[in-house]
Amino acid sequence: MNIIGNIIKGAIEITEKLTPSSNPVKNQKEVLHHLLQTAKDTAFGKFYNFNDILESEDMRTRFAETIPYFDYNKINETWWSKLHEGQTNITWPDNPDYYALSSGTTGKSSKRIPVTQAMIDSIKSTGIAQILALSNFDLPGSFFEKVILMLGSSTDLIKKERHLEGEISGISASNIPSWFRGYYKPGDDIAQIKDWDTRIRQIAEHATDWDIGAISGIPSWIELILSEVISHNKVTNIHEIWPNLEVYTSGGVAFGPYEKGFNALMGRPITVIDTYLASEGFMAFQTRPETNAMQLATNQGIYFEFVPFLPEYINEDGSLKPNAPALTLDDVELNNEYVLIISTVAGAWRYIIGDTIEFKDIEKAEIIITGRTKFFLNTVGSQLSVNKLDDAIKHLEESFNIEILEYTISAKRYNGEFYHSWYLGTVDNIETDALAQSIDDYLKANKNYDVARTKALKGVKVKTIPSSIFYEWNDSNKKKGGQVKMERVMAEDKFVEWELFVENNYQPS
Q1: Which helix (H) or strand (E) holds 499?
Q2: Which of 110, 184, 273, 433 is 20 to 30 Å from 64 by CA-CA measure?
Q3: Which domain of life is it from (predicted)?
Q4: How far apart are CA 73 and CA 79, in angstroms?
Q5: What is the DSSP string of 239-308?
Q6: What totals of helices (H) and strands (E) does the chain contain, helices first?
Q7: Among 258, 356, 225, 345, residue whose Cα is nearest residue 297
């Protein structure tokens, strides 16, 4: 009998039941007040007169009217750069303890995003809330005795003067509470290895020593790691190594495009739980099995606003136009896409995180991530979000019974005319003209795409390559493992580099 596991499971269920119901709208009003009150004496708070906002009759409206939108470049050049010059109390009291390094999916140079102790506490609190929500899933008592394999970036952080730097997954793992360390793998020694391939080999070699109940990480890299563990140990599926594996917490990108490949590595179905942890904070997590939507962490130091994701509010480079309206939780509607704006206990203010979301339950503040503002394919009026592109990939997998692990796309000119040029990561041998026709027909169900196909968009072209080429591309851009995600939509100039890379690194047989 799993006595200890059942005791832990029972304690979690009791704690969850005793936790009072949360009101997301009320939470958000309180969070905004806390942010403004705490930061009112910073340089940023004085410049934008937070005292005046706090005293206004409609704090949320005054806040939106007073403070402009900031992307990373704008807030870094104007405010965060002062921190690197030795100044203090800039956008949050004192100085940040960490900086999260993030090149994301669109650039080679790393962003340096402040991570304060208040943000570390926020991430911990949201993580605990996620653990409590496990009581809503039908998991055996034995699960709560097993360990969790967390696959992120190295926890060997870079020391810089008065702070440490690393990717957010490495920062989070280095701040795991002492009571949780007994449940955490691969453990400190392996987690500190900087070289991704070396770390994966170490995990594969130690895999049989661990009784893993859950794994956590970005789908593309999880697949690679599980494949390596399976190959190294000469088994056919991961459950032959970890028979008690019950849960996978996904994050970073939509799980849908990876589902088929992921399931092929399993010996039986497991519970997949979506999470939304970014360099700027732990935004949301799935709280119940009836939906794959995630509940926004509305009471953990992050204030959310939502800009309608419409062409009239979005510039060509994915940035927001100054007049774009920001909505609160009171105003959003179901099935509309929004650009997510955040203000946080790390001193980010009206910050454009770059993700687009859609509400699936407003009362519960449950969302799904639909894509990236910079990966909105609208060069010729097609208005395709990553969510629609992911759906097209899933359609191909189902229609042709194939597995597509990665993809990227660009609107490319051939002899002066635009085509959507797709690269699909698959080992399956399918006629590319048939794939192109199927994608084209499927996407014509979207009105804007269908109209674009009668005008400037002349057609679709498809090339298939091994998925390893995508990983080698990321490696060549120093973006391998951890929080790294493949760019789904490329600008024309970047696509030239990509195609040259493919040509030099892949020779079709």
Answers
A1: helix 492-505
A2: 110
A3: Bacteria
A4: 10
A5: GGT-TT--EEEEESS-SGGGHHHHHHT-SS--EEEEEEEETTEEEEE---TT-S-EEE-TTSSEEEEEEE
A6: 18, 18
A7: 345
pLDDT tens per residue across span 32-48: 999 999 999 999 999 99
Residue of 90, 79, 89, 483 lying closest to 280 (CA atoms): 483
> What pLDDT sits at residue 106?
42
Q: Is-contact 381 451, C-beta < 8 A?
A: yes
**What contacts 374, CB < 8 A, 6 or more positions away?**
106, 317, 318, 354, 489
- What burial letters (b/e) apply to 434-468, b meaning 16+ CB within 10 Å? ebbebbbebbeebeebebbbeeebbebbbebbbbe
Cis status, amide bond into 186, omega within 30 of 0: yes
By 3-state DSSP, what share of the chain in percent is helix, strand and coil, each rounded to 5?
40, 25, 35
Q: What's the length of the chain?
A: 509
Name the residue with tokens 């979207």.
Answer: 446
Which residues are bridge partners to 368 per DSSP? Answer: 358
Measured distance between the N- and C-terminal CA atoms of the chain, rounded to whole angstroms:
55
Amino acid at 130: Q
Count other C-beta atoms under 10 Å from residue 353's C-beta: 22
Pick the closest to residue 251 from 198, 303, 215, 226 (CA basis): 215
CA distance 254 to 106: 17
Which domains, ranges and CATH numbers included, belong to the chain?
25-95+301-374 (no CATH), 377-505 (3.30.300)
Average confidence (pLDDT) over 243-270: 86
* Helix 219-232 and helix 196-206, axial crossing angle in degrees, nearest 10: 50
